[in-house]
Amino acid sequence: MSQDDMTEMHWLIDMIQTVDVGVVVLDRENRIQVWNGFMESHSGKLPSEVRGKTLFEVFDYIDEEWFNRKTRPVFELRTRAFMTWEQRPFLFKFPNYRPITGSEDVMYQNITLSALTSTTGQVDNICMMIYDVTDIAANKKELEAVQVRLLEDREKSTSN
């Protein structure tokens, strides 16, 4: 490996650790292989604490059967899968840390699951990318609440 390749690899690893997105790599048995800085910061769990453990050992509230239904096509068909906050507000019950959206107790999340192909062409691992969408969720919920109030006010005014 050349010095340029080593430098690029170092940058990529540094990026994964510092990006404001959760990055988790799981093997076929749902054992955690990679746990980046975002995940460490929001969960309070060090990579050394979670590496090699199953997702369900670390987060016993995650429904294993449901999660496996989501990941199976990623492993078998090499397709992406998505989990949105509208379907399920969060996978990881992280506290909301943003003062602007203090109305929400938990971090709302969108998650993308992607297949990771090995050098042999096999998919033995998947990557989960966890996006904090609390601001978007809080704004949408507030907009919907305002729309309901406006509709109720309109109904009251037309019934009088």
Automatic annotation (TrEMBL):
The lineage of its organism: Bacteria, Pseudomonadati, Pseudomonadota, Gammaproteobacteria, Alteromonadales. InterPro entries: PAS, PAS-like_dom_sf, PAS_fold. It holds the Pfam family PAS. It comes from the Bacteria. This is PAS domain-containing protein. Signal peptide: none annotated. Residues 8-65 form the PAS domain.
